[in-house]
Amino acid sequence: MLTKTVAPGLSDLPPVRSDSLLALIALANADSRPEKIDVGVGVYRDADGRTPVLRAVKEAERRLWEAQDSKGYLGGAGDKIFPELLKPIVLGPHAADERIAGLQTPGGCGALYLAFQLIRLADPSARVFMGVPTWPNHPPMARGAGLEIVEYDHLDRDTGGVRVDALLERLQDARPGDVVLLHGCCHNPTGADLSEQEWDEVARVIAERGLLPLIDIAYQGLGRGLEEDAYGVRVILDACDEALIAQSCDKNFGVYRDRVGCLFMKTRSKEATATAMAHLLQLAREAWSMPPDHGAAAVRMVLQDGALTGDWKAELEEMRQRIATVRERIASSDERLAFIADQYGMFSMLPLTREQVVGLREKHAIYMADSGRFNVVGIADEAIDRFCAAVIEALDGEVAHG
Q: How far apart are CA 294 and CA 174, in angstroms?
């Protein structure tokens, strides 16, 4: 008779606490009510409620299909031209700095993963100063790299603005080598961004205290404008000898499912950057070996062609304008929502309790995160007034979880 030794193994894994946003998507998908409004999922939607393929991207993909003659590996660095073409857009006057290098990654998540892992290699004792609330994937990615998190309040819930005082006060506790995670623009989930003057002050403190800035810029062009949204990145590079910038094309090129991102890195010298890049390539090799090519190739082709670049910028501006217009419509519906017009990007947080959010879901088929975070442009134009009326009803206490 066969004797088995029972040891701890795969069968003994504890249950996973499900991602709340993924669970929300599943709930929304299961709701068959035709009036359903899903402002939980974080993708851009146009006036008709669609997430379109951008014209320039569609044309680039057509050209790629006609011209591509191989699906062979490109290597661990992926498309080497792609980050070079992004440099002027993201880095501006710092694009030619030989101390800065870029590496293609699978989306912004891939860039953040490499950044946190590189930080761990450089200084395992480094702490990550992180505002709350923040994008839900930031904390687990930092902890997954074994890094300690130090929190501070990002959002002033009375004004809808940034608690820059809390950030600067918290940084007084930071040690040289600690990391400061900042949203480059269009803060997710609050929409509350630093002003240019606040960026100047934050950059000064980071440089004076010898801290390492890590900027997550995932929505460039969807807030104040393509150039304006890069202000924080550039003032940090002005002030600091070292920096990490996790960039995503998923939103501003509309290539969500293709996972297109880049990690830019600045060190004190060209030689040190080359050494750090070798570490990044090794980390990438261990994680995904080779990054996917299609989306980055399409973005590269857009940026290599002046006409396509111009069309992309025009459509990006259309998207930005729609976000601003929807914000104004929501803000003007009730004085308690006026702060939404002063924020930027696709997300804001409504002053709702979890019970009110659940009530909106049950009574009006409106789906948003329990925190009140919602996608401003997750609503088709024809549904905006109905959405506002339901939210006002909830704020008035007339919608409750039944």
A: 41
Helix ranges (H only) for 68-163 are 81-91, 107-122, 138-144
> Burial, 228: exposed, middle or buried (Cβ in 10 Å; 0-12, 13-18, 19+)?
middle
All structural domains of the chain with their residue ranges: 17-54+309-395, 70-306
Our answer to whether residue 218 is catalytic in this structure is: yes
Both tokens of 158, joined, read 């009375």
Which one of the listed residues 60, 251, 296, 370 is annotated catalytic? Answer: 251
* pTM for the whole structure: 0.94
| C-alpha torsion sign, points 72, 113, 344, 39 | positive
The CATH code for residues 70-306 is: 3.40.640.10
Which tens digit of pLDDT belongs to each residue from 34-89?
Answer: 999 999 988 999 999 999 999 999 999 999 999 999 999 989 899 999 999 999 99
199 tagged catalytic: no
Say whether the peptide bond before residue 88 is cis (omega within 30 degrees of 0).
no
Active-site choice (38, 79, 178, 216)? 216
Active-site residue, 135 included: yes
Coil, strand or helix at 371: coil
Residue 8, number of CB atoms within 10 A of its CB = 7
Neighbours of 268 (CB within 10 A): 10
